[in-house]
Amino acid sequence: MQPTLTFVIPVRHPSNARDWKELKSNLAITLRSISNQAEIGWSAILVANRGSDLPALPPGVRVKWVDFPPNPLHEQGLAHKEQFLEAVRLDKGRRILAGMLDASATDYFMVTDDDDLVSSRLTGFVKTNRGQNGWFVRHGYIWSPGSRLLYRHPDFSMVCGTSHIVRADLFELPQSIEEASDEYIKQMLGSHIFITKHLKEHQTPLLPLPFVGAVYRTGHVGAHSRSKDIFSTYLMDAWLLKSPGELSRRISRLRILGQGIRHEFFGPYATAAHAQRSLSESNEMVLDDDILQASDNNA
Hints:
27% of the residues lie in helices and 20% in strands. It is an alpha/beta fold. A hairpin with a 5-residue loop joins strand 7 (140-143) and strand 8 (149-153).
């Protein structure tokens, strides 16, 4: 049966990982999250360098082995920021393209970073709305491992790569990696910043996903962007003391990491030690476009 939704997970070259043991552990949690889809009709392709030590693969996940060289500019600080970004986009985009070309026929693709988490509702939603151009994740959670809190970001697709579900034909995939220009690889595949604008300009706009779609894990040693924890990033800026309204809005976006969120994004096998306080989703107040409203589905 042709999958409705295929997740493509690019994994960096082992030489570019600061701590492969941690990367492998994070990847295992990402794969568990993906395999927690509430409905059948999904598949996942992990793109990794041949010989990489990978975690056990859940049913529905397979590997596309590649032989791409390490990215020489994989760390911020090794070059000017734009050079660094271009190098990361090219390396990541090639891996994504290899995975997409290796996929069997599928209706939609979702690129998923190797340390992020996704909602268990995605496949069911895509099935119900098959035929649309796709969706961008407007609202998503930011979370630092070990924290009992998440931050519900109102413009998630601009900060996290795990943020677009796109109908497969809209990628206009080449027949081979060799046929793809570097510009195509970087703009369409290697970055999450450009694709929404590109598809809109080509009269195939994406719609906002109507619920929280993913979790961006930040503040760990393997984070590509050297991201900080949510408090340092969103609540500790000195300028917020001069803008109490914005500070109040940001505080209102904090969520407790309870059983409901954990089950939806981490999977049913999350350990009891990590399942901290229960969350009463039906009573949770959420911020949507600066309007506080009770919402069970958009927790």
